[in-house]
Write a structure and sequence with these properties.
The chain is an alpha/beta fold and 448 residues long. It is 23% helix and 32% strand. It is built from eleven helices and 23 strands. The strands form four sheets. The chain has an eight-stranded mixed β-sheet with strand order 7-22-23-21-20-17-18-19, sandwiched between helices. A seven-stranded mixed β-sheet has the order 10-9-8-11-12-13-14, covered by helices on one side. It binds S-adenosylmethionine. S-adenosylmethionine binds next to loops.
């Protein structure tokens, strides 16, 4: 098909193009202008090529179009960038897990900091950014596997970036060694316990004493899919602390072998831990978690009453509770039950308040917040815009914002800066090596 004969933009699907990559987008995808297309498309559309680097000339095949983005599969690097290195994983680009395995760690660190600077450029906070701390590679302790099983085939791995297929990862450079070991055993054995065609997810958090495994079965009855008793016996042999099944949003714990403990580190001579629920939120690496806690504790220093909004099972609240009264809020009831139990076991439940509330639709009112000395917010990637409207009305002087999303962080930081707060410092923490993600702990104070 010649370029001029494209009738609709969808005609480019599966076509090959030679492209000049002029920059990288937020997700680390190479971006090229689309002069290769007829003028009526070229002004509007851009090509996005995961795995291509700035300045490269590449051959790319169109995979799908979302809004004005033409996503392509990298077929060949014709003129490589001087930064390009040999990829260290043969599933890179097939598997959606990593954004960069074709450049070294220094390059990735610089790129992440540059993204942070660019996103927050209008806020003029560059001189408040502290040096980046990075987790080591192969330390990820939480993962979600996809499974497809029928009479003929069995797949267990990660979702593909480009197809409906599940990518068999064999050895993954992101997971920690215990998860890799568990993955290989599941891959080798799980199929013999499956008796009915099924598609499901396996969510694993690797805790202190072993794997916490949640089968997310969606609508099927888990007892009908598996040869159940044998499956449980097999899972027990894999050093699991807990096995649970989720069907229609209901979680049932079927096996509990040990404590679902996640040690958070030592504070004032005491070893602290949380008790995450099945499939509950866990910071991706232990090192990342320690660094986040360290900077949050530094930020709330001297506060006697602290609100931990979006507290989950208490990664931050439990350390904070060692020096302050805490007011914790989250929408996940099972995470809050874990937090309550952990505080009780560590004898710091007294005086503290734990509230189950959806903070995005019903934020905690400024009237309740006004007696608090410091507010910690660690929202999901959507950010905390609604809750921040109440925060600024409360006149609490110390705000600690922990974020895993640069876009919503920049939006919410702008809101705080426009409403009487200034940024004291911002600590970037990389607990997602080889991806585009970055974690931030930041401290804002109200200008007097
Ligand atoms: C990034 S996690 C942080 C959890 C905790 N700070 C930690 O480090 O373990 C975000 C938390 O926000 C909670 N969350 C998500 N949407 C929420 C909402 N609309 N209202 C309240 N909490 C919400 C989740 O349950 C989760 O615990």
């Amino acid at each position: 098909m010649t370029i001029m004969s494209y009738q609709s933009i969808n005609d480019v699907i599966n076509q090959l193009f030679e492209l000049e990559i002029h920059s990288l987008g937020m997700n680390g995808d190479g971006i090229a202008l689309s002069h290769v297309l007829p003028e009526r498309f070229s002004n509007e559309y851009r090509f996005y090529v995961p795995g291509a680097l700035e300045g490269e000339r590449v051959l790319a095949k169109v995979h799908k179009i979302i809004q004005k983005k033409i996503f392509c599969r990298l077929m060949k690097v014709i003129a490589p960038s001087k930064d390009r290195e040999q990829e260290d994983c043969n599933k890179f680009l097939d598997c959606g897990g990593c954004n960069f395995r074709n450049v070294n760690s220094n390059w990735i660190n610089k790129w992440k900091i540059q993204q942070l600077i660019t996103k927050t450029e209008p806020l003029k906070i560059k001189d408040k950014i502290l040096p980046l701390s990075s987790s080591e590679k192969s330390k990820r302790r939480r993962v979600v596997f996809s499974v497809q099983a029928n009479n003929r085939n069995f797949y267990l791995g990660f979702n593909s970036r480009f197809t409906q297929k599940i990518i068999d990862i064999r050895s993954c450079k992101t997971m920690n060694s215990k998860l890799t070991e568990l993955y290989l055993k599941l891959k080798l054995n799980l199929n013999q316990f499956i008796i009915k065609k099924s598609n499901f997810k396996i969510k694993v958090n690797y805790l202190d004493n072993g794997a916490d495994i949640l089968f997310d079965i969606k609508k099927q009855n888990y007892k009908e899919i598996f040869n159940f008793d044998q499956l449980i016996q097999f899972l027990i042999s894999l050093n699991t602390v807990r096995v649970s099944f989720k069907t229609n949003d209901r979680i049932q714990i079927v096996q509990f072998n040990g404590k679902n403990q996640n040690t958070l580190g030592k504070l004032s001579g005491k070893i602290l831990y949380s008790l995450p629920p099945p499939g509950g939120f866990l910071q991706p690496t232990k090192e990342g978690e320690r660094e986040i806690i360290k900077f949050v504790i530094k930020a709330i220093h001297g506060s006697k009453k602290v609100a931990d909004l979006f507290c989950g099972s208490g990664t931050l609240s439990i350390p904070i509770s060692q020096s302050a009264e805490i007011f914790c809020v989250d929408s996940n009831q099972s995470a809050l039950s874990g937090l309550k139990e952990a505080l009780k076991q560590q004898k710091s439940l007294n005086k503290n308040k734990i509230i189950n509330q959806d903070l995005l639709s019903l934020p905690i009112s400024h009237k309740i917040l006004k007696d608090i000395d410091a507010i910690v917010l660690n929202p999901p990637s959507k950010g905390a815009k609604t809750q921040l409207k109440e925060v600024i009305l409360s006149n609490v002087t110390n705000i600690v914002y922990v974020s895993c999303n640069l876009n919503t962080f920049a939006r919410d930081a702008k809101f705080l800066l426009e409403n009487g707060y200034s940024l004291e410092w911002l600590k970037p923490i990389d607990q997602f090596p080889n991806t585009m993600h970055l974690e931030i702990v930041s401290k804002f104070i109200e200008k007097k």
